[in-house]
Amino acid sequence: MDLMHALAAWSWLSPLMVAFPVLLGALAALDARRAPYAASALLALGGVVALLSAIAAHHWADQYATLVLVLASVAFGLSPGYLTGTGGHDPWPHGRIRAYYALLGAFVASLVALGQAWPLIDLWVAVEATTLTSVALVALPPGRGPFEAAWKYVVMAVFGGLVALFGIVLLGSPARDFVEWGVLALIIGFGTKAGLVPLHTWLPDAHAEAPAPVSALLSGAELAGILVVLRGGVNQAAAQLDVLWPHRVLVGLGLLSLAVGVALIARQRNLKRLLAYSSIEHVGVIAVGLGLGGLAGLGALLHVFTHGLAKAQAFYHAGHVQARYGTLAIDEIGQLHRYLPWTSAGLAVSTLALAGVPPLGLFWSEWLVVLGGLKTPGEGAVAIAVAVLLAAGFLALAFRLPTLWYQLRAPGQADAGRQLPAVGLRGESAAVRLSTITLTILTASAGLVVPWLYHWHA
Fold first, then answer.
1. pTM of the model
2. d(Cα 273, Cα 437) in Å, to the nearest integer?
3. DSSP, res 218
4. Distance (Å, whole) CA 337 – CA 323
5. How far apart are CA 374 and CA 396, in angstroms?
6. DSSP conformational letter for 332
7. What are the pLDDT digits (tens) for 384-404?
8. Do 326 and 412 meet the contact criterion of CB atoms below 8 Å apart?
9. Packing angle between helix 223-241 and helix 271-292, nearest 10 degrees?
């Protein structure tokens, strides 16, 4: 107990975590061979300290920074092999690698800032910082595709940022009508940046073209962080107006995002685009839970963590699959368990988690959202709709992804009917194995931690 009190006393250090990743990104940029692993270890240590401090101080919102730091540590640890060509693709120029690490550190810092208890205008600045740094990271890989995806991203992000700023200005007005227009603008602006349907058009391209570690942070941390910021603004405006319609709008957009994401998952033939539409589905779950509040709101906050871990793991392994097979086309990938056994195991665990299979963490957080809706008077239809759509999402993943394992296709193999001998652990570096083990443990253990957190909170 004395240790927990000591950690709570140091909770004021949480804002300083914003500067921490910037320094580590600069350190990694100085030496692209060894420094990223040191940065990875320090970020992981920072995540552990942030988690213990937040639990001790009962500051649940601060644990979002923990998620970011843990995911960032894996991003730094996985990047050297991804960027230098040891994973099987062409290496990046050294200057571009240095820029990548510097931008990655700044991006992680802006994500940590989203979890701070700052005024709404300061959090808007943090959201814009995530946009600037992530757009640069999306555009950084060589080729035309990343540049086009970054351009679409920046156009939508600038629109969303300006609309959200307009909403924040109107929220400070003494006139009730201006405040109502302000909260609507806030939902549109931040909803655009979070990828809520129908303002999601930038998201599939950006997540598919970004480097795998960046895609993991975009999907696992940024989208949920922006929704948490939006929740604060909506709660503030709803209390000021003494109305419920802002939360109803959030629930409606969440259901729409959930439905569109599920409908498009089964149509995707590109692995990273499939994961991007899965992100739209789960952003919808979070939005519905935050809109309903109460027990469903707790489920949504827990879903931020369970989805963040599982989706980050899925994107990391998708990047490794792309490096070894030279493609992300699902129909051209097969026999993962034979040629990439570690990657295969990690991708299987993350896929099962994203599908909501019990007892993994996403099942429990989704269950809390549905249960919260059923226990809220007048929200039974919403809860049933969420449950039905989540079941459809499970079927969509079950329809599309199993070919990655049973299809008879090896890396670089043109003839799908010819079966090649297994290559064991060849091509899977120590960093990939360590990242796989770390994320698998975190993803799997969330199924045990979420029920404990629920009972402890109750």
1. 0.86
2. 25
3. I
4. 16
5. 25
6. G
7. 999 999 999 999 888 888 888
8. yes
9. 20
